[in-house]
Each structure stands twice: as structure tokens, then as C-alpha cells.
Design goal:
This protein has 419 residues and is of the alpha/beta class. The protein has 2 domains: 2-328, ANL, N-terminal domain (Rossmann fold); 333-417, GMP Synthetase, Chain A, domain 3. The chain contains 9 helices and 22 strands. It has helices at 2-17, 20-34, 37-55, 74-79, 113-128, 174-187, 196-208, 229-239, 379-390, and strands at 94-98, 108-112, 138-142, 156-159, 164-168, 191-194, 219-222, 242-247, 256-258, 264-266, 271-279, 282-289, 300-309, 320-328, 333-334, 340-341, 351-352, 357-363, 366-371, 376-377, 395-400, 415-417. The strands form 5 sheets. A 12-stranded mixed beta sheet has the order 4-5-3-6-7-8-9-10-14-13-12-11, with helices on both faces. A 4-stranded mixed beta sheet has the order 21-19-18-22, with no helix packed on it. The two termini are 41 Å apart. Bound molecules: zinc ion.
């Protein structure tokens, strides 16, 4: 019964997400990429002006200077969402969403159906860059739990309304993965999208068992978590197709994607991006979304970090911006003096042969490094780098495991602090 409810839910969702608004937007987006680049710039400027004009009726922005970079952060939106609403009261097309919040406290956001349809159009625009047509079947690996059906060992379900095979990141056992692979072939998916932590487990399984997928797969894309370049290579080797990345947030203030040459580009159709320098080559991503006419978020600090700024890319797509999304501003560990130490992604370069690694701080000066199956690390080097960053000696245990600590939303964070 619950599985039927999921299917019906998906059909309703596809009607909201992929109706007339969706098709209209997708057509406009595609034409922007085909036309004169100057026209794209003009279109963006117009979108920005329109949303700014609208935002002036929200109490937070008022008539004052609201365009300062990064003025709005999550804590303000969390405590006073009403200040960002342009109209009082709730009207029929308004949709309320909640983010799970990696630090435990989520945000309540309001948007409307048109904005949701626009977000879906941005997704299909991205897929179209890789030769995927509207309506092509796909597989999504995400953090929803799925009720088991009869004769089904894994956690998967076909959602005909969305033309999707949905797989839960909570079940990555070898038996379940075998079922997912069979389901992928049977359903004939052309694209796959999901959390890299889960996709890498599937990729490792494919390579270990030497599975040859009988599929015309065009694209494997990742999102919601960081992925290393070694992880991307592993996906390419296992799935034998293009591997890309899509960056966005529930707040929907901006979007980025990774082009076939490996550069991250501002997608350009969701919002403006400003990079706020935090350190050498390290920027916080600040977005101003074009589409939320219920609760506009402008100059919004996403808390996500971009590294390696790029101004040019030979791929021919507009708005190249950077190399890696390195994690979140709040990914840090503590030394015994209580100093926060962040930017830990670089120490994971010592880990080889597995796409997944997670550093857990279990106490002051005490750490556990969780590695996926087959992962190899030079423990001495890893420990030395960690000690250099913290400025003190630490105890490090390396643990190999199949299952990682996941957030409520099913994500794996690369840095977890248990103190
Ligand atoms: Zn490029």
C-alpha cells in the first residue's frame, strides 16, 4: 500500500514539476544557450532586476540597500522566515518545504509551483547537454526510505509518473546492488543521478564483480555531497559514460554544473553567483535566486565552499567559475584549545582505491578514519597532515566498513564531529 502511495505521489509531483510552466521554461533556457551570449547576459540582468523589484515588498529588504554581498545567511532565514515573504498569508499556489539541515536544524522555506517547475527545467537543461532527451528514463539514488514490496530484497521502486527508478541510499548491501543493476537494465535507464557516496559503492561493486551493464547509459551525475576527482574517475570506469556533477540547494538561489572538460560552470538560469573570498583560492558561494516570488533570497550565503577559481574554459559553454566544491563552511574539527580547523578535504588525497572516506572526531585529539571496502591509506602521512592542521598530536584509528554514518536525509558527510 505504501509503495502505491509513493507511485501516486510521484505522478502528482510530475504534474506539478513537468507541466506547461516547465515546458515553457525549458524552451527559453535552451534558446539562451543557442543564441548570442550577450542576449543571455541581458536576460539575466532583467531577471535580477525583476526579482529585486519584487523583493522590496518583503520586510527584510525594505526599500534600503539589500544588495550587499552575502547579507542574508541561514540563521536569519531560520529564525524569521516571515521577514522574507513578499505577501502576508498563504495563497493556493504556495508550497512549503523544509530542509533537513546537516547541523540538525532545518529551514522552513516557501516557494510556488512555478518556481518548482523552473527548478525541474534547469535539471533537464543540464541533462540535455549530455544528449538526454526529455522523458528519457533515469535512476535516482537518494535518501528516501522505501517500503519493501513482495519478492523485493533491495530498496527500489519504479515511479512511472517521473519515469524514474528510485533507489534508497540506505541499502547498499551487495544483494541489494545486484537487484538495482538488474532493475536498471530492465527499465532501460539513460541517466543516473545520486549521492556520490552511494554511487561510488555501486561503482566499486561493478568493478569488483566485473559487471558489464547492458545499457545505453549517457550520464552519471552526482549532487548534494562533495566528490573527489578520483571518485569521478571511478564512476567513469564503472559506468562507462560521461560523469558530471550538479550543484544546487533546496533554497534554489543558484546552480552549477561540471562540463565535459571538468570545469564547474554557473548554469546561469537559476540565479546570480557571487564568490565571497574566505582564504587563498577559497570562496563561499553566495546566490541570488531569480524565481522565488514568494520568498526571494538575494545575496544568500549558501555555506558551501568553492575552490580553484576559473575564468576560462575551452568547452564553449558560458560562465566557467571554478574547479571543486569542497564542502561546507561548517565542516570543521576542534583542537584541544577549542580552535575550529576547517578545509579538511585536502587530507583525503592520501586515501586511494576507494571513493568514500569519512573523518570522524570522537573526542579531543581522537579521530577515526572510515574507509570503504578496498580503501588504502598511508596512515602515517594522513596522521601527520592532520596533526599539522590541528597543531597538536592526535590519536587516529583507521576502520574499513561498508556502511557509513548517514544524516537523516541519507547523506554521507566527509567530516563528522561527535563532540
Ligand atoms: Zn567548460
Amino acid at each position: 500500500m505504501k509503495r502505491t502511495a509513493l507511485k501516486i505521489g510521484a505522478a502528482v509531483l510530475s504534474a506539478t514539476r513537468q507541466g506547461a510552466d516547465f515546458r515553457k521554461r525549458l524552451e527559453i533556457f535552451r534558446s539562451l544557450f543557442q543564441g548570442d551570449p550577450a542576449r543571455f547576459d541581458e536576460w539575466r540582468l532583467r531577471r535580477r532586476q525583476e526579482i529585486e523589484l519584487l523583493a522590496r515588498s518583503a520586510p527584510y529588504y525594505g526599500k534600503g540597500e539589500f544588495l550587499t554581498v552575502g547579507q542574508v545567511d541561514k540563521s536569519v532565514v531560520r529564525s524569521r522566515p516571515d521577514l522574507f515573504m513578499v505577501r502576508k498569508g498563504i495563497w493556493p499556489s504556495v508550497v512549503k518545504t523544509k530542509t533537513s539541515g546537516t547541523t540538525g536544524v532545518g529551514l522552513t522555506l516557501y516557494t510556488d509551483r512555478e518556481a518548482i517547475a523552473t527548478q525541474a527545467a534547469a535539471w533537464w537543461l543540464f541533462r540535455s547537454f549530455f544528449g538526454i532527451e526529455l522523458g528519457d528514463r533515469g535512476m535516482v539514488v537518494g535518501g528516501r526510505r522505501i517500503p519493501r514490496g513482495s519478492g523485493c530484497l533491495g530498496d527500489w521502486i519504479v515511479l512511472p509518473g517521473l519515469r524514474q527508478l528510485y533507489v534508497s541510499s540506505f541499502n547498499m548491501s551487495a544483494n541489494a546492488i545486484d537487484e538495482y543493476l538488474t532493475a536498471m537494465e530492465r527499465y532501460g535507464v539513460r541517466w543516473v543521478h545520486g549521492y556520490p557516496s552511494a554511487l561510488l559503492v555501486i561503482a566499486e561493486h561493478i568493478l569488483r564483480k566485473n559487471v558489464r551493464l547492458n545499457l545505453d547509459l549517457r550520464l552519471v551525475s552526482t549532487g548534494s555531497e562533495t566528490i573527489s576527482s578520483a571518485g569521478r574517475e571511478l564512476l567513469k570506469e564503472a559506468f562507462r559514460c560521461e560523469v558530471s556533477e550538479f550543484y544546487g540547494q533546496v533554497e534554489n538561489v543558484c546552480a552549477m554544473w561540471r562540463c565535459p572538460r571538468g570545469t564547474l560552470h554557473d548554469l546561469g538560469v537559476i540565479g546570480d553567483i557571487t564568490l565571497d573570498p574566505r582564504d587563498d583560492e577559497l570562496f563561499e558561494i553566495v546566490g541570488s535566486g531569480y524565481w522565488n516570488s514568494v520568498m526571494p533570497l538575494l545575496g544568500y550565503r549558501t555555506g558551501d565552499i568553492l575552490t580553484g577559481r576559473v575564468d576560462n574554459c575551452g568547452c564553449g559553454f558560458p560562465y566557467p567559475i571554478g574547479l571543486e566544491i569542497e564542502g561546507r563552511v561548517d565542516d570543521y574539527v576542534l583542537n584541544s584549545k577549542g580552535t575550529r580547523v576547517g578545509r579538511l578535504a585536502r587530507i583525503f588525497t592520501h586515501v586511494r582505491n576507494c571513493g568514500e572516506a569519512q573523518l570522524v572526531q570522537i573526542g579531543l585529539k581522537r579521530f577515526v578514519l572510515n574507509l570503504g571496502r578496498g580503501g588504502v591509506v598511508d596512515k602515517t602521512e594522513f596522521q601527520r597532515d592532520l596533526q599539522n592542521m590541528l597543531g597538536e598530536e592526535v590519536e587516529l584509528t583507521v576502520v574499513h566498513q561498508d556502511e557509513f554514518v548517514r544524516t537523516k536525509g541519507g547523506k554521507v558527510k566527509s567530516v563528522v564531529r561527535e563532540i
